[in-house]
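Support request, please re-run this one:
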Amino acid sequence: MKKIIYIATVAFIGLTSCSEDVLSPVPSNAISDEQIFSDVASAQTALNAGVAYICNYLTFTLGTVMSEVMGEDALMTNGNYGIDTYNWNLYSYTYSQVPGEDPWWFGYANYIWEYDYKGIDVANNIIAYAESLPDGASKDNLVAQAHALRGFMYLRLARLFATTYTSNPEAPGVILHKEPANAASEHLGRSSLKDTYALILEDLDYGRKNCSDANIYYFTPKSCALFMARAYLDMADYTNAAKYASEAASGTFDGSNLMSQAEYQGGFYEPNGEWLMGFEFNQTTSNYYASLPSFYYLAKKAFSADENGKANPADLQYLDTEEEVNYFDEPLYGYSTVRWTKRFRDRFEDTDCRKLFPFYFYEEDGWFTSKFSHKDLFIGDADFPLARIAEAYLIKAECDAHTGGNAKSVLNALQVARGASPTDASLENIYLERRKELYGEGFRLQDIKRLHQGLDRTPDPEHWASVKTLPADSPRFMLPIPDVEMLYNKALTSADQNEYWRK
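Re-run finished. Output below.
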């Protein structure tokens, strides 16, 4: 397969999950679905567009950063310390999002919902028109990719817009569209979480069994297996979560299939043997400053930093001058608005290769991370992992701790590979290891939800948001169903809105 490219001219892709004419206008010169799916090559172009929606900045950047800054380890700069907030994810951090989109920076849920459903509609069209394609391995893989894409998108939506499966499987999940959207499409209500996860697993399993592509920029059998393990972990089905985590890791949990410490410290910007699926941000696919890496990195080293990591705030002036190289190593810094608390940084031993917090300017503003880097001096030019074998280790360890397996061996193999001291395999230590291994990759909010934890930012003085604590299972951990969906989808009533935003 060719690498992923953005295709802006795929005419059938709907704007949201609902299907009113006002939301899905069809231009007079639109390409018909029959033309798009007349051959595998054309349908492949559509798939490329669908896969591109996975990491479109209006869903991936917003959703991933949101999932970190709504927790306790990460925070947003408040703009008072030399670098502007630009409003990006500021209102996720402060728990002040709204279901509307005016002004846009308050309503991130609208974009995540819209673009994930765009990807779903691409998948639905490929599946629906598959019969018109000539038979063969290319067609089979294409249809499998579409199923995997749909399952992935629904899993992401369910994690952000619904409560947790273990709270109540019959609680509202998301709206399940399995047919292409058009102006005449049936209006559908929210399906239960039980039905939502059933479709997720069915689709991912189809991809696992039928994807034949070895290109990690697309779905592969092993990445589908890891996404299934992720879903089963949400459901607290530890037997199946461990089964598919083991499949994703090829049954190997001795550390030999993990990236080296040098690769980890090199910055997550290009695939290595541990990546099971990634997205290629390059000069075609990058959203420049809006690409996710832009929000994390500033530099790997500040030459003015003292032994405690404090850099001279006066050196901020050099960030846009030719003198910057005298003060910073790799100073391409993007927005650099996401910071990390000192308490989180101090959880890492000095020998741990994941301790990538090179400096801070003001302790009140938190530490920068250099976990995410870039290929060249080009904003956003950095691939991003969507599935890593390390997650399979963590899932397997957690499942083994619940079922009486050898959790300690699995956990210790990961810790030793990262240069950390082995610990016992208590659930508390496994949960902490998830935070240390996966930080910045968009897992924290879902872990808070599925583990029925509360939010507690009070031990960290860097947190300036007014929301310092939330109880376990708080309705504020769910995003609002967008106003446009509530308005135009006739199958929904005000009771279908998530609790905190009901009017």
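Confidence is low (pLDDT under 50) at residues 1-31. Strands lie at 74-76, 275-279, 301-302, 328-329, 338-340, 384-388, 455-456, 469-470.
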